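ugh ok fine here u go
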Amino acid sequence: DEFNVPRRRFDDGVDPRWTAIDKNDYTNKALHYYDADYAVTEEGGVLNISTAAKDTDFTSVQIDKKTKKVKTKRLRKHFKSGMLQSWNKFCFTGGIVEIRARLPGEAQVGGLWPALWMLGNLARSTYVASSDYVWPWSFDKCSRANQKRQLVSACEPSPHYGLLAHHGRGAPEIDLLEAMPGSGWLPWGMRKP
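structure:
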C-alpha cells in the first residue's frame, strides 16, 4: 500500500485493507488508548500514526479472578495513539515488505515503543484471548510435549477449522522494526541488549 490518497480514513468498515482500531490496549501494561483519529494519511503518500498526551475515559469489562464474574470498571488512560491492522482483510503470503519510516522522539530519550510487525491471521493484536495457544510460534511437527501449547497441532488426525490433518498452524509474529529508544531505566526489570 502506498498510502497515496490524501486524508484517507481507516475507521472500522471504511477501508478495504486496513482498520484503525478504537479500543483500550491492555497488553504489556500499555499506557495509551488506540483511537482511529491518530492514523490518517497526509499529502504525498505519507501515513501518519501519531501519539498525544490526551486523557481518554472508558469502561473496561473485566473478569473477577476470585468470583469469575464479569464486572465493569471505569478507567482513564493519559495517552492516545493510532494502530492499523489488516486482520481478516488480506494475507501476505510471500514476497518483499518495504517500509520507510520516521520514528517518533529522540534516540536518547525513552518512553516510546514504536513497532512495525506482522502477525499471523489466527490471532488479532490487542485482542489477547485470540492469541492463546497460537502465538508467538507455529510448530509443524508432532511433539506430544508441545501439543498443549499449540491449538492447531500437527499431532491431530482430525483437526477443527477445516485444516489439514497432521499440520500445525499458529500465528507467528514477524518483527520488522521494534525500537526502544533511550539510555536510561526500563520498566518491569527489562534490560537493553
